[in-house]
Amino acid sequence: MAIPLKKFAEQCEEVALANGKITPLSSPTVSMYDISRRWRELCKATAFKSDNLTDCSEKEEGAAEVIIAALTYLQRIGCKDIEQLLRSTLEHHRRQTL
Fold first, then answer.
1. Rounded CA gap, 98 and 87, in Å?
2. What is the pLDDT of residues 82-98, one digit of tens each?
3. Rounded to whole angstroms, how far apart are CA atoms 85 and 43?
4. What global pTM score does this model have?
5. Helix, strand, or coil here: 49?
């Protein structure tokens, strides 16, 4: 079952709020710093099995954490259409290769 990225981003924000990572008054910058932190963790991740997610490697879990942090950030800055943003960005990259 597919879930729209906007709905998933809302869920990411809800979890971040519930876990105390952010508050309703937190600046989006807090979420941006979380992307940086998660990226650094991904850089250190290995291909070994994750301690947290038994069906995944540390690298897979780390990449998922970066995506979740980025979706939370997009939600916090009020991105209206995440799917379209990603399609447009990919198309921009595609045009650059021609």
1. 17
2. 999 999 999 999 999 86
3. 25
4. 0.91
5. strand
